[in-house]
Structures are given as structure tokens and as C-alpha cells.
Design goal:
CATH superfamily of the largest domain in chain A: Cytochrome c oxidase-like, subunit I domain
Largest sheet of chain C: none
Shape of chain C: elongated
CATH topology of the largest domain in chain A: Cytochrome C Oxidase, Chain A
Number of domains of chain A: 3
Number of helices of chain C: 3
Helix content of chain A: 55-70%
Distance between the termini of chain C: 50 Å
Helix content of chain C: over 70%
Largest sheet of chain A: 2 strands, antiparallel
Number of helices of chain A: 25
Number of strands of chain C: 0
Chains: A mainly alpha, B alpha+beta, C mainly alpha
Keywords (chain C): Membrane, Transmembrane, Transmembrane helix
Strand content of chain A: under 5%
Strand content of chain C: under 5%
GO cellular component, one term (chain B): membrane
Subcellular location (chain B): Membrane
Oligomer: heterotrimer
Shape of chain A: globular
Order of helices and strands of chain A: HHHHHHHHHHHHHHHHHEEHHEEHHHHHH
Radius of gyration of chain A: 27 Å
Number of domains of chain C: 1
Number of strands of chain A: 4
CATH architecture of the largest domain in chain A: Up-down Bundle
Largest interface: A-B, 88 and 91 residues
Strand order of the largest sheet of chain A: 1-2
Family (chain B): Belongs to the cytochrome c oxidase subunit 2 family.
Protein name (chain B): Cytochrome aa3 subunit 2
Chain lengths: 839, 308, 104
């Protein structure tokens, strides 16, 4: 590794630029702010946009409650009502809850962990624009009078072309899939940021508890969203191309959609709950004045909730006629998830007893969260009981339960968080007096609305009905619920007023206004767009409480690593994922329009698909691909070393498994594997439940299947060798092997397609799924080929210096995973051939 | 439009007119009581913790978060399993009724493998005898739910789900589709009539043979309009038509409700329905017959009401 | 492996074991109760039982022989994670014995 003593031009110092720390991190001015990639800007945008969607979805909820206020009401017609409740659920779940929590994570994680930015800032900007454009696509359906009206769950066959011939379902499928890209990219980004960029000394055991919550949540998103993305793509393919994945006449199954949907849908509830619980675990110690009690318990609880929540999906399907053994299994798993939830609640309660609690507005919201969420959890346990579920399912009891869990478990902590972190957004405090009004209006309104719904449901009122006859016993209950919803809305309206009022008249927030313990309060809240001049070493989970040197001096004078480093580049510290020991200097990108252009290209692609203008669709794809290429076309920085102060010298951008780009690739592979696994699940499911029709499928060809398998093995092996040589710094061999990997990838893709030639994807759902798997693998193989050529082109163009093997190393990891997918797919093709021969 | 549904005894999971509903209700009360008790305990605990100054204790988390939930959940799971075995146990029911969900009504066949007696939007059950209800769908997913008698079960295209119910009280109960099934999902209900076993046999016998003959001249005129206006192409009336596109009308006048359990069956509602079905139930396949003259409409209604 | 890595593995490991066990039990039930009818109930019980014994052994490792060194918080987290997942494995297995057929 070459060691440069002075910053050389090729090492990334941008010549002729102002290189003061503040100038490097300055947020672009005027309309150029849209090109900002800073986590502070992107995080806030996620939060603000999410809140706007929350308000829209809230207005839709009020329309629903107004329609139901009296029996036989004709305030909304049936079609409008169906659109309204569909969009209410869709906006709340996809465009409000997850994005706003991700926004908080994007904003807070680097500040809490001692990083100057998220690790992949451009990915953050890209994700935000995907989310925004996806949300606009979904919302714009109202303008075209084609708002989705099939429920936020989009059950087939109601959402197929037979029963929804217009494009309302396509708006939903395409818009939501697009917005989900944002969630998945944010997940990869957060995993990598939490693992790779923490303050020196911050081992996983010293990490603020919020980061544990977000880390587990991000893993859950990476694994939990792919089933729905695959489900949506399959359904869109059924609608556009006539592939019969869910058509029972061709060996498909409507229940496959429900499995895929709830494989996402149940973890989703925990994905929403965990970050909010993490906020509670962060705010509570501040107001109690004592550290979170039972950190180890909380970590165990979060980890176990993260896993167990994936074993509950079928409890949304108890009434679909599953075998009773399945019901029993899912019922058992559903009750067991109450144990870690209980552990977590009691951690909070024990924390309350550890100091002198202050009854501030955020604390009120925490108490409200405890009351509401505990009740929602208890009704959740009731719903895990199969016989009770058969009565309560799809009745207002479930409506009550889910709002107790989601509003109690997420919205109340979120409003607490608004009051708590408000200084970060405006530099001013929100009003404590109005805050109490907001809380009580929301609390009373919420309980009036939803407590009664338990009874309404048990009295037999099904969900999603626009009208009900008089005299069945639901009239008064609905009237009261509607009145409650207006009170709840008044609380939210008062909050919005408080926000705008405080922008001008709120008291300026002092440094660390609440006396909190975590690093995001190190600087005074009214800061420009940078985080840490120096990254302070941390040896406590409550650094601001236990390390008095941090608050003794002005924040910008606090001693830390990289304090005086002047490369004219945005940089932060890369650490060992487990121990938190500083490993390398992590170079970060500066403001750029490229991710936005990539997202716009994708938006054009998705929008043109909706409008069935396929040449425009291709154009959008080309724009996105070109933008991605420009994005990655930057000089490699590895091979340089710097003195970062405090007696430490660190290299720039490590070539190692622990390198941030490599961890990011591993995170991406996790997502891709989950996508692949969802397809394999679909294949096995259809094979198992529709044996007669699966048997009518023409078998794939044996020889090409075998060839594909061998070529897949070659992809994986070449990948392995590439990694090996890259790690040893033998760049020439690594580069050669990377090209061999690409050739093997081409061969394996071609053989896979050849093997499936006899299989007609429109004849059977099983055949269609095989083709879908091959298509998915082929896309990954194309990425391998494109990437290998791209790396070669960068070398030829001199963007990669001698000795810099990180690009090939990352490609190799991707190729290994892809090779594995090819082998598995080929094995399934071969099994199909052998199975066909046996019959 | 008059939509008062005093004609039904109940549509309510808190009443027990069937074995499934009764056993589930027992479980509901137990779980509700336990739930309220636990809620009060936890809230009390929070209040104590608020005042406590001694600091948290590990045993709180172990006791409140692990030991107590495990014990309580094991008890709940056991109780729930006992009830589930009781409900899902009747596999050899003496009666079989096949119900097919359609947008937005219910096609009913009694004894599908034997006499195959057809009716619509009303299901008659024998008091105290287990009945296996076979649930199918002709289009999208529906869900069959009679809260007063038993829990719900979905109707899924390509599958046959089985629900065994035993009604324990005579009367007329309301059921409703519980899975969102499209535009007029809220208007897809049905009647369940529980009769003593003797009356049930008589009822089945009455489904055999031709529908009641038209007697008065108005009724005969109505029967003619039924054929000339084209109703006959979709609706079955035994002896006149075997069409299966719309509901069976052979004993329409005997039902208490109209439009799949939605409106009280009376002359005004029935005439309004025929003339304006598109408004009353958007998405229904039947066209509105608002071109029928007043006398024709009255005759048609009179004849349909006479079919009992 | 450094102590902190080992204790981290003890926190996450039981979760992975639980996930594999859950998937196994679900796959076995699907094999027994779908139209293809791959195995019968005794076969289901036997293979499910074996998987459970195996999974329980692994999940209880951090409980019975906790990591000796490493941050105390993570050792405690490993203990409770092992215990919670052991209970969850038991619950999944218990679901197999209350009903002796797929019917319902």
C-alpha cells in the first residue's frame, strides 16, 4: 500500500476549493439545496413529506368516519368510500409510517453515533426522490379518477384485470413498489451506517439503544419488504402480461398473494413499532434522569422481536381454511411474541423507577404510548387465539386493535419525538402548554374513537363497509367513534398550529435543552449543515452525562479524531462493525444531482409503464442506468494514509470485508437473496398445493439446466478467487478473474433461458414462476456483466489507480451471491426435468 | 329507502345462537376479563414506578416480562386449543349445504351430492344438528360470517372450505360478507333461518318441485312480464327457468329481506329494487327495469311476492 | 474470535436457530397437509421432534454455558435471547401435538 505524506491531487483534495470544514459541509444555497445529499437535509425531507402524507391520510380517515356517523349515510358513494379507505391504509402504512421513521433514523443515527453523515449520502437522496415520486404517482390517481379501490392489501382476484379492469390497481402496484425502493435503500444505508461509522470506542455494547432498534428494524426491512415487492411484480405481470401466478384455473393460487403480502405485512407492524419504541427508549432516560434500565434485556427483546415477528404472518389468514396444524403453529408463535414485548415494556417501567420523572410533553406522550400500546398488545394476544380470531377477524375489533398498536405504538411516540427533537428542526422549542392540550385531545379523541370499536366489532360489524342498516346495534357506537375522531383530529390540528407558531415565536433552544445523554445534543441545535468538527472518543452509552469534557467546551472545540484534517473532502471515521475501533477514513460524496436524475429516470420508467408508452419506459430506464454509471464513475481513493490526530494514523477507504462499501454490498445481497427466496417460496408453494396442474407443465431441458448449474458454479468460484486476489492486493489477477466471472455469467444466463424454452409461462403458474426466477437471476447476471465491464472501463480511463482493488472485491462478493442463485435455480430446473421424467 | 332491520334476531358475536359462537363467547369473556386485569395491573405498576425512588429491579423485568407472560400465555393457548378442538371437531355432519359467494349475493345448494336443492341469499339450518357448510366462490374472495352462530370462513376461488356449524336457537339471524369483495361489499348480507328439525325437513321438501302457481290475474300478468321482460334469462324460478346467473327467486316472497339481506321485503322496496337496482346496489349485474310501466311493475311485484 | 464477537453471536445465534426451526416446522406441516401429501402425521411428529431437540440444544447454549468474557450487557442479552428463543421453539413444537390431523 502506497503511503502519501502530503495530500496529492489524485488523493481527492479538490484543487482550488475553499477547504475550511464549514465550507466543505455547507448546504448548497437556493434551489440548489435540492441537490444536497446531507443526512440532515434528506432526513428532514423524509419527515416533512411523511407528515404531509399523514395529514392527507388523516383527512381521508375523517371522510371515512363522517360517512359512518349515521346508518345508511350517502355522504360518499360506494366507489369513493372504497377509494378513501384504500388510500387511507396505503398512505398511512407505506408513505407515512415507514418513511417518517426512516427519516428520523436517517437524521438521528449519524448524530447519535458520532458520524459526520450517513455512509451512502447519495443513496439517501436517491431513496428520498423514489419515495416522493412513488408517493406522487399513487396520489395522482385521484386526478385521473382512478384511485385504487381494492383495499391496501390488494387481494387477488379482486385486483386482477378480470375484476379491476381499469388502471387503479396499476397505480397502486407501480407507485408503491417504487416508493418501497426508498425503504429498502434506506435499510441498506442504515445497516451500513450503524455498523461502519461510529465514534471511536463505541462498540456494539456501548451503542445508544436507539441504534440497536434501528439496526434490527433495517435488517427487518431488508428481509421483510422483498416478499411484497415480488408479490407486486408478479401481480403486475399477471395484469400486464397474463402470467397466471394467482389464477387457480392455471395452477396459481389466490392464497399465494396473501402469503407474500403478509410475509411483508406482519413484520411491517414491528418495523413501524420498533423505531418508535427506540425513540421512547431514548427519550425516557432523559426525563427520568437515569440510564435505560436493563440495556441487555432490551437488546435481547429487540433481537427476538425482530426474528419472531417473521413467524406470525399467517395469523392474518386464520379464516382462509389453512390446515389446523398451521393455525396452531402460527397461533403459538403469535402468542410468544408477547414475551419480548413484555420484557421491553418492563424495561421502560423499571427505568421510570430509576430516577425522578419529569412530566414534560414528550413524557406525557410516552405514558400515553404505554397505556394504549399495552391495551393493543393484550387485544393482539386475544387475536392470536384461533376461535376468537374467527369471530373478530375483519371486524371492527381488528380495526380497534390495529389502531391501538399503530397509533399507540407509533404515532404517540412520534408526537413525543416531535416535541423532543423539535429544536433540531427549527432551533426553537414547541410550546409545553399547547403540547399538553395536543396530548389530551389526541388521547381522549383516540380512545373515544377506538375503544368503542372493540364492541362494535364483536357486535358483528365487518370492516370496510361504506354503509350499514339501521337498528343492528351499531348506530350509537359509530356516532361516538366519529365524534372521537374529530377530537383526535383537533389535537393534530393544534399540533400543526403549534409548529407554525413556534417557528416565529417559540423560545430559542439552548444547548442540550432537555439535559439528554446522547451525542445529537452535543452542538447547539441551531447549527449549519455539519455534525462534528472532531469525532470524540466515546466510552459510555450516556456520553453527555458521563464524559463531562464534552459539554465543558464549545462544541466545535471538543477534542476528537479528524479535528484538523483538511483534505477539502467530506470525510468521516470508518470503524470496526463490532468493536467500534477506528479503522479508516471514509470519504463521502459532495452535493450532486445525479441520484435525483436516476430517481427521475425510474419515475419516468414506472409512469410510462402505467400509461403503456413503452418507448418512454425504455428511455427512463436508460436515463436511470446512465445516472447510475455516472454515480459510480468516481476516482477510487484507497491507498492513502492520513494523521487524524490523537496519535492515530488511518488509511483512506479500506480493502477489507469490513469496508463500508463491502458491508453495503453484503446488505444489498441480503435484500436480493430475500427477493430470490420469495420467488422460491412461491415456486415450492404452487408445486405443493397444485400438484395436478404443475404436472401438466412441459419439463425444462436437462442438458442446459446442468450447463447453467456448472456455469453458475463458475460464477461463484471466479468470484471467490477475485475476492482472494483483491484482498491480497494482486489487482491484475483480480481484474482478469472479474472478466472471467462476467463471461461465466453470460453463459449461465443463456443456458438458463435455453433450459426453460419448452416451458410456456402463460400455460401454468408453475411455469410462470420458473420464468420469473430465471428473469430475476438474469437481471442479477446482467448486473455482474455490466459491473465487470464498468470496472474495466474505469481502469482504462484511469479512475482506478494501481493497487486499488476495492471495486473488483465488491463485484466479487456480488458475483458469489449471484452464482449461488444460478446454482439453486438450475437445481430446480433439473428437479423439474427429473420429476417430469418420473411421471 | 326503508332499511330498518328489525326483522332479524341478531348479527352479534356477543349472543350465542350456535355452538361455535357460544364456545367462542366463553373464551371471549375469559380473555377480556384477564386482559382488563392485566391492563390494570400494568398501569398500577407504572403508577408505582413513577413514585418509586429505589430504582428499577431486574426481577420486575424477569417477572413481568418473562415469567408472568409465559404462564398467562400457556393458559390462554390451552383454553384456546380446547375451544378450537370443540369447534373444529364435528367432521361427520348429517347435513351438507353448499354456499357459493358471488358479487354480491349468495348461491345456496342444499344436499349438493344428493337432491341438490337450490335457493339464494337465505340459508335454513336445522336446530341442534351439525351442518357442514361448503364454501366456494365464483369470482373474488368473500367471507361467510354469521356472528350469532359461528366464526367466519373465507370463500376462495379454486378452493372449497368447510365450516361445521350447529345452531342452538331458533330464529332469523343476519350474516354478512366479511372480506372486502368490491363495489357493493357492504350490501352483501344474507339471512339465516334456524328451524326445528321437522320443519327443516319440510322446508327441504318444499324446495323440490315447481314454484307456487300464479293465481290471480295480476299474478298471472306478473309471471308473463317476468318472461317477456327477460328476467327469465338470469333468474331461476322452479318450473319456469333454470337460469343460474342471478339469484333463485322461486320463494322470494318467503324471505324477510331483499337484495341479499339488505332491505325489508315489502312491495315498495321490491318495486324500487326492480326499477332502480343500479342505484340500490351499484355493481350488481342486473340492469334497472325503470322502463316498465306502473301497472306492469305492480303486477311483476305482486307475482314475485306471491312466490313463497 | 474476540469475546465481544462471541457474545454478539450468542445474542443473534438463537434467533437464527429459531428461524431455521420455524421454517422447518412450517415446511413439515406444509408437506403433510397440502394436496401433494408428502409425509404423514407420525412422520411429521418424528421429524419435527428431532428438529426441536436439536434447535433447543443450540438455543440453550448461551443460557447454560454463557460466554465467559465480553461486555456484561451483551452476555446478559445473550442469556435472555437464548431463553426467549428456547421458549419460542418449544411453543412452535407444542403446536404440533395438540392436533393429530390436518383437518379443520
Amino acid at each position: 500500500m502506497s503511503v502519501a505524506e502530503e495530500p496529492a491531487p489524485c488523493s481527492g483534495a479538490r484543487m482550488g476549493e475553499d477547504t475550511t470544514f464549514e465550507a466543505v459541509w455547507d448546504t448548497p444555497k437556493g434551489w440548489r439545496v435540492l441537490s444536497s445529499v446531507s443526512h440532515r437535509v434528506v432526513g428532514r425531507r423524509f419527515i416533512y413529506t411523511g407528515f404531509v402524507f399523514f395529514l392527507i391520510a388523516g383527512v381521508l380517515a375523517l371522510l371515512v368516519r363522517t360517512q359512518l356517523i349515521v346508518p345508511g349515510n350517502d355522504f360518499l358513494d360506494l366507489e369513493t368510500y372504497n377509494q378513501v379507505f384504500t388510500m387511507h391504509g396505503t398512505l398511512m402504512m407505506f408513505l407515512f409510517a415507514i418513511p417518517i421513521l426512516e427519516g428520523f433514523a436517517v437524521y438521528l443515527i449519524p448524530l447519535m453515533l458520532g458520524a459526520r453523515d450517513l455512509i451512502f449520502p447519495r443513496l439517501g437522496q436517491f431513496g428520498y426522490y423514489c419515495y416522493l415520486f412513488g408517493g406522487i404517482i399513487v396520489l395522482s390517481s385521484f386526478l385521473f379518477d382512478a384511485a385504487p379501490d381494492g383495499g391496501w392489501f390488494m387481494y387477488v382476484p379482486l385486483s386482477t384485470t378480470d375484476f379491476t379492469p381499469d388502471i387503479s390497481a396499476d397505480f397502486w402496484l407501480i407507485g408503491i413498489t417504487f416508493a418501497e425502493i426508498a425503504s429498502v435503500t434506506a435499510a441498506v444505508e442504515l445497516i451500513t451506517a450503524i455498523l461502519c461509522a461510529r465514534a471511536p470506542g463505541m462498540s456494539l455494547a456501548k451503542m445508544p439503544i436507539f441504534a440497536w432498534y434501528i439496526l434490527i428494524t433495517a435488517f427487518m426491512i431488508a428481509i421483510g419488504f422483498p416478499p411484497l415487492i415480488i408479490g407486486s411484480i408478479l401481480l403486475e405481470a399477471e395484469r400486464l402480461l397474463g402470467l397466471p401466478f394467482f389464477d387457480p384455473l392455471a395452477g396459481g393460487d389466490p392464497l399465494l398473494w396473501q402469503h407474500l403480502f403478509w410475509l411483508f405485512g406482519h413484520p411491517e407492524v414491528y418495523i413501524i413499532f420498533l423505531p418508535a419504541a427506540g425513540m421512547v427508549a431514548t427519550m425516557l432516560p432523559t426525563f427520568v434522569g437515569a440510564p435505560l434500565f436493563g440495556y441487555g434485556f432490551a437488546v435481547a427483546a429487540v433481537v427476538s422481536m425482530g426474528f419472531i415477528s417473521f413467524g406470525l404472518w399467517a395469523h392474518h389468514m386464520f379464516a382462509t381454511g389453512l390446515p389446523i396444524l398451521s393455525l396452531s403453529l402460527f397461533s403459538a408463535a403469535s402468542t410468544m411474541v408477547a414475551v419480548p414485548t413484555g420484557v421491553q415494556i418492563f424495561c421502560f417501567i423499571a427505568t421510570l423507577a430509576s430516577g425522578r420523572p419529569r412530566l414534560t410533553t414528550p413524557m406525557l406522550f410516552i405514558l400515553g404510548f404505554l397505556a394504549i400500546f399495552v391495551l393493543g398488545g393484550l387485544t393482539g394476544v386475544m387475536l392470536a387465539s384461533v376461535p376468537f380470531n374467527w369471530q373478530a377477524h375483519d371486524s371492527y375489533f381488528v380495526v380497534a386493535h390495529l389502531h391501538y398498536v399503530l397509533i399507540g405504538g407509533m404515532v404517540f411516540p412520534l408526537f413525543g419525538a416531535f416535541y423532543y427533537w423539535a429544536p433540531h428542526f427549527s432551533g426553537r422549542m414547541l410550546s409545553e402548554r399547547l403540547g399538553r392540550w395536543v396530548f389530551w385531545l389526541m388521547f381522549i379523541g383516540f380512545n373515544t374513537t377506538f375503544l368503542l370499536m372493540h364492541l362494535t366489532g364483536l357486535r358483528g360489524m365487518p370492516r370496510r363497509i361504506a354503509t350499514y342498516p339501521e337498528g343492528i346495534g351499531w348506530d350509537r357506537l359509530n356516532m361516538l367513534s366519529s365524534i372521537g375522531s374529530y377530537i383526535l383530529a383537533a389535537g393534530v390540528a393544534l399540533f400543526v398550529y403549534d409548529v407554525f407558531r413556534s417557528l416565529r415565536r417559540g423560545p430559542l433552544a439552548p444547548r442540550n435543552p432537555w439535559g439528554a445523554a446522547t451525542l445529537e445534543w452535543l452542538y447547539p441545535p441551531v447549527t449549519p449543515g455539519f455534525n462534528f468538527h472532531g469525532i470524540p472518543p466515546v466510552h459510555s452509552r450516556e456520553p453527555l452525562w458521563d464524559q463531562p469534557e464534552l459539554l465543558e467546551r464549545e462544541a466545535h472545540e471538543v477534542d476528537g479524531l479528524m479535528h484538523g484534517l483538511r483534505d477539502g473532502r467530506r470525510e468521516t471515521l470508518g470503524c470496526d462493525p463490532v468493536t467500534g475501533a477506528p479503522l479508516y477514513i471514509l470519504r463521502l460524496p459532495h452535493p450532486t444531482w445525479v441520484p435525483m436524475i436516476a430517481a427521475a429516470g425510474l419515475a419516468l420508467m414506472f409512469g410510462a409503464t402505467l400509461a403503456s408508452v413503452y418507448w418512454l419506459c425504455a428511455l427512463g430506464g436508460v436515463i436511470a442506468l446512465a445516472a447510475f454509471a455516472v454515480w459510480a464513475w468516481e476516482p477510487s481513493d484507497s491507498g492513502v494514509e492520513r494523521d487524524v490526530g490523537m496519535g492515530t494514523t488511518l488509511p483512506v477507504n479500506l480493502v477489507d470485508r469490513r469496508s463500508h462499501t463491502h458491508v453495503g454490498i453484503v446488505g444489498t445481497m441480503l435484500v436480493l437473496m430475500a427477493l430470490f427466496a420469495s420467488l422460491i417460496f412461491g415456486l415450492l408453494y404452487l408445486w405443493n398445493t397444485q400438484p395436478q396442474i404443475a404436472a401438466t407443465m412441459a419439463a425444462p431441458l436437462a442438458v442446459p439446466s446442468g450447463l447453467a448449474g456448472i456455469a453458475g458454479l463458475a460464477v461463484a468460484l471466479f468470484g471467490q478467487f477475485t475476492r482472494h486476489f483483491a484482498l491480497q492486493g494482486r489487482t491484475g489477477r483480480a481484474a482478469l478473474l472479474a472478466q472471467l466471472t462476467a463471461i461465466a455469467a453470460l453463459l449461465s444466463g443463456a443456458s438458463l433461458g435455453w433450459a426453460l424454452l419448452p416451458v410456456d409461462p402463460r400455460a401454468t403458474a408453475f411455469g410462470a414462476t420458473l420464468w420469473a426466477i430465471a428473469g430475476f437471476v438474469a437481471i442479477n447476471l446482467c448486473v455482474v456483466v455490466f459491473w465487470a465491464l464498468f470496472n474495466a472501463a474505469r481502469k482504462l480511463a484511469g479512475r482506478v489507480g494501481p493497487g486499488q482493488s476495492l471495486p473488483d472485491f465488491n463485484l466479487a462478493t456480488f458475483a458469489k451471491g449471484t452464482g449461488l442463485m444460478v446454482i439453486i435455480s438450475a437445481a430446480f430446473c433439473l428437479a423439474g426435468t427429473l420429476g417430469g421424467a418420473a411421471q | 329507502m326503508d332499511s330498518t332491520l328489525g326483522i332479524f334476531n341478531s348479527q352479534n358475536a356477543l349472543t350465542d345462537a350456535g355452538q361455535g359462537a357460544a364456545q367462542t363467547l366463553w373464551l371471549t369473556w375469559i380473555m377480556t376479563a384477564a386482559g382488563i386485569a392485566i391492563f390494570v395491573l400494568v398501569m398500577g405498576f407504572i403508577a408505582l414506578a413513577w413514585r418509586a425512588r429505589g430504582g428499577g429491579r431486574t426481577w420486575w423485568i424477569v417477572g413481568g416480562g418473562v415469567v408472568f407472560p409465559v404462564v398467562a400465555l400457556a393458559a390462554l393457548f390451552a383454553a384456546s386449543t380446547v375451544v378450537l378442538r370443540g369447534i373444529a371437531g364435528h367432521m361427520d355432519a348429517p347435513h351438507v349445504i353448499e354456499v357459493t359467494g358471488k358479487q354480491f349475493w349468495w348461491d345456496v345448494v342444499y344436499d349438493p351430492e344428493g337432491r341438490a336443492l337450490r335457493d339464494s341469499n337465505e340459508i335454513v339450518l336445522p336446530l341442534g344438528e351439525p351442518v357442514e357448510i361448503r364454501l366456494k366462490s365464483a369470482d373474488v374472495i368473500h367471507s361467510f360470517w354469521v356472528p350469532s352462530i359461528a366464526g367466519k370462513m373465507d370463500m376462495i376461488p379454486g378452493r372449497v372450505n368447510r365450516l361445521t356449524v350447529t345452531a342452538t336457537k331458533a330464529g332469523r339471524f343476519r350474516g354478512q360478507c366479511a372480506e372486502f369483495c368490491g363495489l357493493s361489499h357492504p350490501l352483501m348480507a344474507f339471512e339465516v333461518v334456524v328451524l326445528p328439525p321437522g320443519d327443516y325437513a319440510a322446508f327441504l321438501a318444499s324446495l323440490d318441485g315447481e314454484a307456487r302457481d300464479a293465481v290471480t290475474p295480476t299474478e298471472r300478468r306478473g309471471a308473463e312480464i317476468f318472461q317477456s321482460a327477460g328476467c327469465i334469462a338470469c333468474h331461476r324460478v322452479r318450473g319456469l327457468s333454470e337460469a343460474r346467473i342471478g339469484p333463485d327467486l322461486s320463494r322470494l316472497g318467503a324471505r324477510a329481506a331483499l337484495g341479499a339481506g339488505m332491505w325489508e321485503m315489502n312491495t315498495g322496496n321490491l318495486a324500487g329494487w326492480i326499477a332502480d337496482v343500479g342505484d340500490m346496489k351499484p355493481g350488481a349485474q342486473m340492469p334497472s327495469y325503470n322502463h316498465l310501466s306502473g301497472p306492469d311493475l305492480r303486477a311483476l311485484v305482486a307475482w314475485l311476492e306471491s312466490l313463497t | 474470535m474476540s469475546p465481544i464477537r462471541r457474545s454478539l453471536l450468542c445474542v443473534i445465534g438463537p434467533g437464527i436457530v429459531w428461524a431455521v426451526h420455524f421454517t422447518t416446522v412450517y415446511a413439515l406441516i406444509s408437506a403433510a397437509c397440502a394436496p401433494r401429501d408428502l409425509i404423514d402425521y407420525p412422520g411429521l411428529l418424528l421429524s419435527g421432534g428431532l428438529a426441536t431437540v436439536f434447535a433447543l440444544g443450540l438455543c440453550l447454549l448461551p443460557v447454560l454455558c454463557p460466554p465467559r468474557a465480553g461486555p456484561p450487557e451483551l452476555i446478559r442479552a445473550a442469556f435472555w435471547s437464548g431463553l426467549i428463543f428456547s421458549l419460542a421453539v418449544l411453543a412452535n413444537a407444542g403446536a404440533l401435538v395438540f392436533f393429530q390431523s390436518c383437518g379443520g
